[in-house]
Design goal:
CATH class: Alpha Beta
Number of strands: 9
Radius of gyration: 19 Å
Number of helices: 14
CATH architecture: Alpha-Beta Barrel
Shape: globular
Order of helices and strands: HHHEEHEHEHEHHEHEHHHEHHE
CATH topology: TIM Barrel
Structural class: alpha/beta
């Protein structure tokens, strides 16, 4: 018992080191991850850090899922090109602007255009949409989450007015990356894309799945080291949830508890990071998003997409699409955040 107490004290010291702005090694992160009983202490410290920089504010983003066409065949994703059961759609420029028109009066000051890697949306088409949003709503930020593109493409989108770009790295371990993706996708290219986005001056977001197939604590530790070194302005992490029409359909979902623990660690690694409590958390637990906020997150992304398309953008089984994760139910979301001591803020919510 005495040895156990000494070990736990040493591990608490590692959390304190993060709290005080120090870096940890991969092995130290691995030791923390393998001791989830420290999660309450990590959450306590993470909330202190988030409170220091953001108070009780929770930023909202209006999510617009513009297309579920995708040229890629990632083994975990419900909109992978090989899924013939997926009912495909893509939004026109007019439909995307209509989503913004609906979201602005509700209080949204960031619009997130997310989709599969759909080559229908050329640089010309996307630049036209971005300029139109910025002209109509100059006080709003535009975030893109449209996968891997060339440096020149990213530059054109930035020049057109895009402010932020979300590109999950999925895993910082190359061998693990290759177990989750087809040979047509390259770990090195994913990392190069993130570097290009940083060079071009975007507020950059990366992130990873928790509990993805074949994942180990050592690989999660590599993810945390990568975040520590890359220092993104945004970080999206959520539990892996299987989709019935993918090769990973039989795998178990990732852990809510481990995801929340990692949210706390990410907050300590990156004190000012914009950290979403994801829809995936709410999909595996009725209070998952509130639990994410209580672990150190400070962003939620209600869905502004047309109702008819929300169930078609099904990246994983049982994805929520009509409750408080819906932009139209913003009052319910505000009440949920208020019940745990937080408030929705009408703001662009830029990275500090």
């Amino acid at each position: 018992m005495r040895i156990f107490c000494i070990i736990m004290k040493d591990l608490k010291n590692l959390i304190d080191a993060l709290y005080n702005g120090q870096s940890l090694t991969e092995n130290e992160f691995k030791n923390l991850i393998e001791n989830p009983s420290l999660a309450p202490y990590a959450a306590e410290k993470a909330v202190e850090v988030r409170q220091k920089h953001y108070g009780n504010s929770v930023y909202i983003r209006g999510l617009i899922e513009i297309s579920n066409y995708c040229k890629n065949d990632c083994l975990y994703c419900g909109i992978r090109k090989s899924n013939r059961s997926c009912e495909r759609y893509r939004l026109s420029k007019e439909e995307i602007l209509s989503c913004c028109d609906e979201g602005y009066p509700l209080g949204f000051r960031t619009f997130v255009m997310q989709g599969g890697e759909d080559m229908y949306y050329t640089d010309d088409a996307l630049c036209d949409i971005i300029r139109s949003i910025k002209e109509k709503y100059p006080d709003c930020a535009v975030t893109l989450s449209l996968g891997e593109r060339s440096y020149d493409s990213y530059k054109r989108l930035k020049d057109a007015g895009a402010d932020r770009y979300l590109l999950r790295h999925e895993t910082a371990d190359k061998a693990h990356y290759e177990k989750l993706h087809p040979q047509s996708l390259s770990f090195d290219n994913r990392m190069e894309c993130l570097k290009n986005l940083r060079t071009l001056g975007y507020q950059v977001g990366c992130g990873f799945m928790v509990g993805s197939p074949h994942q180990t604590s050592a690989e999660l530790a590599k993810d945390l080291v990568f975040l520590q070194e890359f220092r993104p302005e945004m970080c999206g992490i959520g539990p892996f949830i299987p989709h019935k029409d993918t090769p990973f359909k039989e795998y178990a979902a990732g852990s809510l508890e481990l995801t929340c623990y990692l949210l706390s660690l990410v907050r300590l690694i990156l004190p000012t990071v914009l950290l979403p409590s994801t829809t995936a958390l709410g999909s595996i637990h009725p209070k998952g998003r509130e639990m994410g906020i209580l672990a150190g997150a400070n962003v939620v992304m209600p869905n502004l997409s047309p109702f008819d398309n929300r169930e078609k953008y099904m990246l994983y089984n049982n994805k929520l699409s009509s409750g408080s994760e819906s932009a139209q139910n913003l009052l319910e979301l505000k009440e949920k955040m208020s019940s745990i001591g937080y408030e929705i803020t009408v703001s662009r919510g830029d990275a500090i």
